[in-house]
């Protein structure tokens, strides 16, 4: 989980950390919810480092001081990347549900879910009954050693979009669901491929 660590030396090193983390999460991890698998396709960074990077939209909840924990809130679900002094949250804005075929073909995506609250609803709708003692599983699985096992084409380009000078969105271009040529932007906003 050391890939979630941020160098707080300057605004530039913080933003470089966002890009590195986004690249790792979008390319190397799948979200596992019990027996269902999802790729992250749109994430948004919120970070508050006093005196260096003060994002006014960061919740600054005590949970965001921790690294690698889930943070469930009224706007969606975050992956925390705080360091004990700085608050960090990565909002999951969109996911792609995989059909379990286990290959990177046109049928590997069952559906896409866009919007943080829709993502939250999708995840919780795949939980077991509240009245059963069956355990629920929600975790990020590293598939970097088995990219075909991710069930989806690896992202071709990352796109940075800035909101209010401090909030950085990371998303990517990828191949379309069906046999179309080129890539398309799956998130919101616009930006330059990096």
Structural commentary:
The protein has 194 residues and is mainly β. It has one domain (2-185). 14% of the residues lie in helices and 38% in strands. It has helices at 11-28, 116-125; strands spanning 29-33, 36-49, 53-54, 67-73, 76-81, 87-98, 109-114, 138-142, 157-163, 167-174, 184-185. Strands 1, 2, 3, 4, 5, 6, 7, 8, 9, 10 and 11 form an 11-stranded antiparallel β-sheet that branches. Strand 5 (76-81) and strand 6 (87-98) form a beta hairpin. The radius of gyration is 17 Å and the shape is globular. It starts with 10 loop residues before the first helix and ends in a 9-residue tail after the last strand. The model is unreliable at 102-107 and 163-194 (pLDDT under 50).
Looking at the structure, what is the overall shape? globular
- Give the helix/strand class: mainly beta
Number of helices: 2
Low-confidence stretches: 102-107, 163-194
Order of helices and strands: HEEEEEEEHEEEE
Distance between the termini: 24 Å
**Beta-strand percent range:** 35-45%
Q: Give the biggest sheet.
A: 11 strands, antiparallel
> What is the percent of helical residues?
10-25%
- Average pLDDT works out at 78
Number of domains: 1
Structure summary, number of beta strands: 11
Question: What Rg, in angstroms, do the CA atoms define?
Answer: 17 Å
């Amino acid at each position: 989980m050391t890939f979630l660590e941020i160098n707080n030396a300057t605004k530039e090193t913080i933003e470089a950390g966002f890009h590195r983390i986004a690249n790792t999460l979008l390319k190397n991890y799948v979200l596992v919810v019990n027996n269902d698998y999802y790729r992250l396709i749109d994430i948004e960074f919120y970070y508050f480092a006093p005196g260096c990077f003060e994002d006014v939209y960061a919740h600054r909840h005590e949970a965001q001081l921790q690294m690698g924990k889930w943070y469930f809130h009224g706007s969606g679900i975050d992956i925390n990347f705080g360091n004990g002094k700085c608050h960090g949250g990565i909002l999951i804005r969109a996911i792609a549900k995989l059909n379990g075929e286990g290959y990177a073909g046109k049928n590997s995506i069952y559906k896409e879910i866009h919007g943080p609250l829709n993502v939250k609803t999708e995840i919780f709708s795949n939980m077991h009954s509240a009245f059963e003692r069956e355990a629920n599983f929600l975790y990020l699985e590293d598939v970097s050693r088995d990219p075909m096992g991710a069930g989806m084409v690896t992202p071709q380009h990352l796109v940075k979009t800035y909101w209010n000078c401090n909030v950085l969105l990371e998303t990517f271009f990828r191949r379309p669901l069906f046999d179309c040529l080129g890539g398309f932007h799956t998130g919101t906003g616009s930006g330059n491929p990096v």
